[in-house]
Structures are given as structure tokens and as C-alpha cells.
Amino acid sequence: MLQCPNCNLKDIGKIGTNQYYCWNCFIEMSLVKGTLMLHQVEEDGSLSSLDDLFEEEERRIDL
Prior knowledge:
The protein is mostly beta strands and about 60 residues long. The chain is built from 1 helix and 5 strands; from the N terminus they run E-E-E-E-E-H. The chain has one helix at about 55-60; strands at about 10-15, 20, 25-30, 35-40, 45-50.
């Protein structure tokens, strides 16, 4: 099961193909080649990358 690398909870919803949303900390995640790409949804609906806040090992997913 997918776990949020930010808050470490499993309250994750699927919002599209390989796209997920954490209902606890409100970040959007995309799964690309086994690595999560993390984004914050801004007020205007745009996405800001959060990848630089996490090590690649923290974002790697083994499904």
C-alpha cells in the first residue's frame, strides 16, 4: 500500500493514472518509473514541485 513520504500516513486517494493525493497533508503525487514526484497544489490550481525536499530513496516505491 502506498504511504505518503511527507506525513507517513496511508490516507492516499487515486486521482488518475499513476496520480495520487494525500488527504492528510494535501500533496499530489505522480508515480514515474517507481519514483514519486511530489507537488503542492497552489491556490490558483498550479503545482509546485516538492521533490527537492526529499531524498530520492524516500520517494522510491516498490509496488
